[in-house]
Each structure stands twice: as C-alpha cells, then as structure tokens.
Specification:
alpha/beta, TIM Barrel, eight-stranded parallel sheet, 17 helices, binds adenine, binds zinc ion, EC 3.5.4.2, A_deaminase_dom, nucleotide metabolism, Ado/ade_deaminase, hydrolase
Length: 326
Amino acid sequence: TDLDTFITGLPKAELHLHIEGSLEPELMFALAKRNAVTIPYASIEDIRAAYAFGNLQDFLDIYYAGADVLRTARDFHDLAAAYFDRAAADGVLHAEIMFDPQTHTARGVAFETVIEGLLSGMAEAEAKHGITSSLIMSFLRHLSEDDAFATLAEAGPWLDRIAAVGLDSSEVGHPPEKFARVFAAAAAKGLKLVAHAGEEGPPAYVWEALDVLHVDRIDHGNRALEDEALVARLVAEGMTLTVCPLSNLKLCVVPEIAAHPIDRMLALGLKATINSDDPAYFGGYVGDNYRAIAGGKGLDRAALATLARNSFTGSFLPAETIAAHL
Ligand code: ADE
Ligand code: ZN
C-alpha cells in the first residue's frame, strides 16, 4: 500500500484537539450569517489570509474572535459533527476533545448550550461512524483561579459526561501552579487531568504540571527536551505527550517540520502521540499531521505505528477497550 493509505488505515485515537479550533472558515462564515454576527472578514479567502501567526498569542487572538459565531446548541452540534466527519475519514476510532467553556460563558452563551450541543454531535458521530469520544473541559489559564472554580461548579450536572479537565491558552506567565487547587478539586471529583506545558513555556512548567497538578498527560511537552532529568522522569512514568507537529510549525515552535523533535522523542523512549490541536487554523487534521512527519522527518512505518499505538495506550479508555484496539 502507499504511505497515504497506510496512514489512513492505522487505527488511531486523537488526544489533543480543541473543538473550537476545528471551526473551518466555511462554517465560520455560514454561522456568522445564520446568527447575524458580524465578523471582521469579507470572505472565506480573507479568513484564511489572516491565519499567519508569529507565536501562540497571535493565534489565540484570532481563535477567540472566531469562536464568537458559535451561539446555539445547533452551532456546537454542527461544529462537532464536521470534526468527526474529518476524523473518521482519517481513521480516527476514538477522540478525546477539549472544549473551552469560558470562551463561551464570558459571551453570555450558557454552559448547557455548549455541552449539550457537543454531546449531541458526539452521539451522532458514534451512530454514523462508530467513532467514540469523550470531553476534556479546559480552563483558560489567562483567567483567574476563581473563574476556573466557577466553571468547575457550572459543570456539576454534566460531570459524568466529562472525562478530564485541561489547561490551555497563553502559557508564559501563567504557570500550572496557579491552578493547583482547581486541579485537586477536579481530581477529587474523579476527573482525569491534562495540561498544556512546554509548548512555549519552560521545562519548569512541565515539572509543575507533574509535581503540583499531578497530570495524567502532558499536552505538547516539546520544551521538556531541554532538561535531561525531566526527560528521564517522563520516560520512567510512561507519561504520554500529545504532540502537534503542524501546530508547532504554524506557531513557530519549530522553524520547519524537518527540525521537529518527534524522532528524538521516540528515540528517548517518550510516549509521544500525533494530534492536530486546532486543525482549521493550522492547515491539517490528524492524518495531515502523520503525513507531515512521515515526509518531513522520514519516519518509517514502524515509527508511525508506534505513534498510533501510543494514542490508545495514552487514552482514557478502559483497559479492556485499549487492549481491543491494539
Ligand atoms: N488553545 C487552543 N489551542 C491551543 C494551544 N496550542 N496552546 C494553548 N492554548 C490553546
Ligand atoms: Zn492545544
């Protein structure tokens, strides 16, 4: 088989996907019209032209502005349905998707509207494609600890539908430690824990995510490679890293795919996985990310298969379901 077919055919899970980051310009335009929301773009080409980022914050400014077209449960349903159609076509069998409730509740969109719309899209995708999924509720780290606690309280009626809490948005200046108590409260409620760490932030933030937040996975983790003792710790714990090659390229975490450290991560024994992060903004879904590193790094089929296996062993699926996928 050719490489494309091989990659699509690899059974895989996606563990690092912001559902708001799967809002394609076409859907953004359609929802702006449907909801009579004004957006600062005259055309779909105009939107795409705005997607040139010098760093994480450049992207976040545009990503939060784009989310303003999402107003009704039907919008969140349509957003999720479109993502799952793409994921299923890429051979994704299971997805653990992040959502940012504060991006919406701050605009007056109810928590219930967001989560009920997403859950209905997830149920439809399971019926249509057989793809399973769960939700990761991410706290925006540029907002306060109090705001995160209020969000955790709002999620109360849906806690049995949420697998984990996460931590995203502007990393530098907002260390994991800021959310130690919220993460402890989420763990006490039986939720799993993940956090973005080491995307732009220093290795110290990865240490904090481990030692202070007690996370079950690290999102990104690129800068952990700067610290040998930290790498040893991550390897010893079998900690899963949810790596996002095209995101790293578009946010200038790496200058080119050929310079991406994914091969070094595998050689060091790190449990790396391949994910799309915000596919509508970074130029590709999970299959495109596998293809980018296969081409740009020359990873062989065995390495690609290892990455895909790691996506199941690093998932929050029950052990017997994981075993069935391997
Ligand atoms: N929110 C959406 N994508 C993100 C990323 N890559 N890093 C931090 N916050 C995000
Ligand atoms: Zn992310």
